[in-house]
């Protein structure tokens, strides 16, 4: 009997077939991204270069939550910010209704989706998934607006706070979570780096670049990481991450056009297609 179902393509036709990709996403946050790469034919090795945990103190966040009705806007720039802020809100006796008079701005669709799973909807999502776009396209006059910004405890970009302040807003920054460098490298990642079998390393934040370089000392010692990774393709999720890659690793080969994990996946697919075309006879 005739069928309209086409046979699955051979593995070698997939855009990332034969490529070993080291993924440096935080522990527990890399599985979906890794699966997208596997579906494109890649051999994925996970090397978490970031751990997310609670801040050193809840004091500033708890104080802000106790006075939440005094804020005009709540700005959340990551899924971590959403999760840790809301968990603390609920832990201190609040719920979604506590935010009924506060407008919520988020950076990125993932952040908005994370918020929605908790029963809340963003009032404003900037057109591009970066903090700069949030400032440039903010939907209302910021003069005398009071803004709560739960964020990473240290190491985050300061441009958002400075620019909002320059436009007349009062921005209250509070530590909602912190990012730390893991203490060790998974054996599979260590072997891959030592043997030089890694083709691509992906980075989704500047912090992962920084912590990867610290962890890599366990493999390469204090020698220049640039020499060891000179022939490795470095893939970045966006401009700020690329800047860190150039500073700490020495080069960037791929930068996502859309600053999301699907966007980074698409950039890798495009690179894989172009590479296959170049090497084809």
TrEMBL record:
- The segment(s) forming the Tetrapyrrole biosynthesis uroporphyrinogen III synthase domain are 32-266
UniProt GO MF annotations:
uroporphyrinogen-III synthase activity
- InterPro entries to which the protein is assigned, alphabetical: 4pyrrol_syn_uPrphyn_synt_sf, 4pyrrol_synth_uPrphyn_synth, UROS/Hem4
Protein name, per record: Tetrapyrrole biosynthesis uroporphyrinogen III synthase domain-containing protein
Superkingdom: Bacteria
Which Pfam families does the UniProt record give? HEM4
Q: Which example biological process does GO assign this protein?
A: uroporphyrinogen III biosynthetic process
């Amino acid at each position: 009997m005739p069928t309209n179902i086409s046979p699955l393509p051979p593995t070698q036709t997939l855009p990332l077939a034969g490529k070993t990709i080291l993924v440096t996403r935080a522990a527990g946050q890399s599985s979906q991204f890794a699966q997208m790469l596997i579906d494109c034919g890649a051999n994925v090795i996970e090397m978490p270069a970031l751990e997310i945990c609670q801040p050193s103190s809840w004091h500033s966040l708890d104080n802000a939550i106790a006075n939440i009705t005094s804020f005009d806007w709540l700005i959340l720039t990551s899924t971590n910010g959403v999760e840790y802020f809301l968990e603390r809100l609920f832990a201190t006796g609040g719920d979604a209704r506590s935010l009924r008079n506060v407008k919520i701005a988020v950076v990125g669709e993932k952040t908005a989706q994370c918020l929605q799973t908790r029963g809340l909807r963003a009032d404003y999502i900037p057109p591009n998934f970066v903090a700069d776009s949030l400032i440039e396209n903010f939907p209302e006059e910021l003069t005398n607006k009071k803004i709560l910004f739960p964020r990473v405890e240290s190491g985050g970009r300061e441009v958002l706070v400075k620019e909002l302040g320059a436009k007349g807003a009062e921005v209250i920054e509070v530590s909602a979570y912190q990012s730390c460098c893991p203490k060790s490298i998974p054996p599979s990642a260590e072997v891959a780096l030592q043997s030089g079998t890694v083709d691509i390393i992906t980075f989704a934040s500047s912090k992962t670049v920084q912590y990867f370089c610290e962890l890599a000392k366990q493999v390469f010692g204090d020698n220049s990481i640039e020499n060891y990774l000179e022939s490795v393709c470095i893939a970045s999720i966006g401009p700020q991450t690329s800047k860190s890659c150039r500073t700490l690793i020495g080069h960037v080969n791929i930068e996502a056009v859309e600053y999301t994990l699907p966007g980074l996946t698409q950039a890798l697919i495009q690179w894989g297609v172009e590479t296959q075309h170049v090497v084809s006879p």
